[in-house]
From TrEMBL:
This is F-box protein. SUPFAM superfamilies: HCP-like (SSF81901), HIT/MYND zinc finger-like (SSF144232). The keyword Zinc applies. Residues 286-328 form the MYND-type domain. GO terms for molecular function: zinc ion binding. The lineage of its organism: Eukaryota, Viridiplantae, Streptophyta, Embryophyta, Tracheophyta. InterPro entries: At2g35280_TPR_dom (IPR057136), At5g50450/At1g67340-like (IPR044508), TPR-like_helical_dom_sf (IPR011990), Znf_MYND (IPR002893).
Length: 344
């Protein structure tokens, strides 16, 4: 789905016209023959309808289409009362449709206090656009509002010291953030917390408690798969509130990689790689994650084959179940073969 071509006004109260909360007596006096019934609807009623539409929107196009219906809808759809209610799907812009208009729409939603937009734009800015400080601030806003995926995203940042150096790794803060996200029902955070307790990473080692959390996470993942099958949908155990941001990042890096030849030919690169050489930065090997290193050798490698890189142990465990279990042995054998001097 393409990004919405939004023409909404900024979510700033100063720029909005005074909303009408009661019918204009002159219009009522005209009766049915003088004024369109829609024009006689109070603005607060129209706002309530638009807010309900935004809360149930299945994609960014739903709200954009409503805003394009008429001038009044366009103006009222830009009110914070509407933008703050937009659903996670309503702000889930696709990477292929990324534009200044889509960026502006997300900024307005975030400014209106929409936690989904704060999280989504925070991830896009931090990982894709290279705006680490702005991205972190947005993720922190979403996390402060109780957004579980944002709490987990900040945990991954703390575990890896993303956006900084090795010295910026803070496992204890990562564990604390994971615990809050897991408490809110975030399954990857629950899995990460289980690994941390099992290994004593960022927390006092408690193997039994770690195993218990890992079993609990596996049960939750299985329940999600079975539930999706019953509904006839896709079976994605790792589906959560952050799936849309991951999908954006996966698509973004695929597009950047496809555009690389053009950039090399002198058109420049807009990937926001920042200070590091983009060629050296690796993507998380979990195909549905989309995170990319913010410095060289930031992500942990698979200790067996050394050819897979992961932003977190949750991603490593999910990728092991999805794909790497069947690839790791072959990759390790190929590495040993090369190390034995068979390459030419
Ligand atoms: Zn990952
Ligand atoms: Zn491996």
């Amino acid at each position: 789905m393409a990004a919405p071509k939004m023409t909404l006004r900024p979510a700033s109260g100063k720029r909005h016209a005074q909303i009408r909360t009661s019918p204009d007596p002159r219009e009522v006096a005209l009766g049915h023959g003088g004024v369109d019934a829609f024009d006689r609807l109070r603005d607060d009623l129209v706002l309530a309808v638009l807010a309900g539409l935004a809360a149930r929107a299945g994609g960014p196009a739903d709200l954009a289409t409503a805003a394009l219906t008429c001038r009044r809808f366009r103006e009222l759809a830009a009110y914070p009362a509407v933008l703050s209610r937009a659903s996670a799907a309503a702000v889930a812009v696709r990477a292929g449709g990324w534009s200044e208009a889509a960026h502006r729409f997300l900024r307005w939603c975030a400014a209106a206090g929409n936690l989904h937009a704060c999280y989504f734009l925070g991830m896009v800015r931090f990982y894709c656009l290279g705006s680490r400080a702005a991205g972190s601030a947005l993720l922190a806003r979403a996390a402060a509002g109780g957004h579980a995926a944002a709490l987990y995203a900040l945990a991954v940042v703390r575990f890896n010291g993303s956006g900084g150096g090795k010295a910026d790794k803070d496992p204890r803060a990562g564990v604390a953030l994971c615990a809050r996200a897991a408490w809110l029902g975030h399954v990857p955070a629950l899995r990460e917390l289980g690994h941390c307790l099992q290994d004593g990473y960022g927390a006092r080692r408690d193997a039994a408690a770690g195993r218990h959390l890992l079993l609990h996470a596996a049960a939750r993942e299985l329940a999600a798969v079975l539930s999706a099958r019953r509904r006839g949908g896709h079976c994605r155990a790792e589906d959560d509130d952050g799936a849309a941001a991951s999908r954006f990042m996966v698509e973004w890096w695929a597009l950047m990689s496809a555009e690389k030849p053009a950039a090399a030919a002198g058109e420049g690169c807009s990937c926001g790689a920042g200070e590091e050489d983009a060629e050296e930065l690796r993507l998380c090997s979990h195909a549905r994650c989309g995170r990319r290193e913010t410095r060289r050798h930031e992500f942990r490698r698979c200790s067996v084959c050394g050819s897979a890189n992961y932003c977190s142990r949750a991603c490593q465990a999910l990728d092991w179940k999805r794909a790497h279990r069947g690839q790791c042995g072959a990759a390790a054998a190929a590495a040993r073969w090369l190390a034995a001097g068979n390459a030419y």
